[in-house]
Design a protein that fits this description.
Helix content is 71%, strand content 0%. The chain is mostly helical. It has one domain (26-259). α3 (54-80) runs antiparallel to α8 (166-185), α3 (54-80) runs antiparallel to α11 (217-240) and α4 (93-110) packs across α12. The longest helix is centred in the N-terminal third of the chain and has 27 residues, at 54-80. It is globular and about 55 Å long. It starts with a helix and ends in a 7-residue tail after the last helix.
Length: 266
């Protein structure tokens, strides 16, 4: 759903000249709205989570994991199995393998997962949650879920160039619900996923004029597919326990954009 909406809006606005929109505000409002929604969802989760029995929290965690699995699957299959008039052709398998393999190697060398966890440990101490054993896992899981995906990139570019924060506002509502459920089931560390979202979307908004020419239809398609697979991996970790170091696969997103400029059809 996120990738479909993002690509549709990107194509609709591709030929819209700057300054033609009415009633739009200064760039950056979308990032603030998205961040505020995550914080609101986290606070609501903290309030409701304390009143829930353990079995309810476990069920919520499983429901959230299954939902994330399907969101990731749908996003990936949108590119890998495009619907045509007479058939259901497949594609993107080679792209997926190359991006995940290359991105995974780079991520392991950089130790991105460990950096996320160290930042989570630092946050846990600084926020007075040193005794919360689930804080870091909740922070990392929620951060990856709300940061990965084309919607954050496209929405931030639209916000930076046109002051159009509508995509990020929609994403904010989705993130509010996701973080609310995650906070109830995983813990209060989920609310601090607002920090990486603010940094990511704020940075893309500031660099929007530079990034927009790079985000061609092919780049967005590749980014959406690989991002959706990473979201699927987050779902696997939620349902089956931590099986995949998803943060170490994040460079695969950059590899996907680079692949779109290669003179090879995937």
């Amino acid at each position: 759903m996120r990738s479909i909406l993002s690509l549709r809006v990107l194509r609709q606005d591709a030929e819209r000249p700057s300054g033609t929109q009415k009633g739009l505000t200064m760039p950056g409002i979308g990032t603030i709205i998205n961040t505020a929604c995550i914080i609101a969802g986290g606070l609501a989760g903290i309030l409701f989570g304390k009143k829930m029995k353990t079995q309810y929290q476990e069920t919520l965690n499983m429901a959230c994991g299954v939902s994330v699995l399907f969101i990731g699957t749908a996003g990936a299959l949108q590119y890998m199995l495009p619907v045509s008039e007479k058939s259901l052709p497949e594609g993107g398998s080679l792209l997926l393998v190359l991006c995940l393999a290359a991105g995974g190697l780079v991520g392991e060398m950089l130790g991105i997962e460990a950096l996320f966890e160290r930042f989570g440990e630092w946050l846990k101490i600084k926020t007075g949650n040193a005794k919360d054993k689930t804080f870091v896992d909740a922070f990392v899981t929620a951060s990856l879920t709300v940061c990965i995906g084309a919607m954050a990139i496209v929405g931030s570019i639209q916000d930076g160039i046109y002051g159009d924060w509508s995509i990020l506002a929609v994403k904010g509502i989705l993130d509010l619900i996701i973080v609310l459920v995650m906070t109830c089931s995983l813990g209060k560390g989920s609310i601090f996923s607002a920090i990486p979202v603010f940094i990511l979307e704020g940075s893309v908004t500031l660099l929007a004029s530079f990034l927009r020419p790079l985000m061609t239809d092919a780049a967005m398609n590749y980014l959406s597919m690989v991002g959706s697979v990473l979201i699927f991996c987050v779902g696997i970790n939620l349902v089956f326990g931590k099986k995949v170091r998803v943060a170490n696969l994040l460079p695969a997103l950059i590899a996907a954009v680079i692949a779109s400029y290669l003179p090879v059809s995937f």
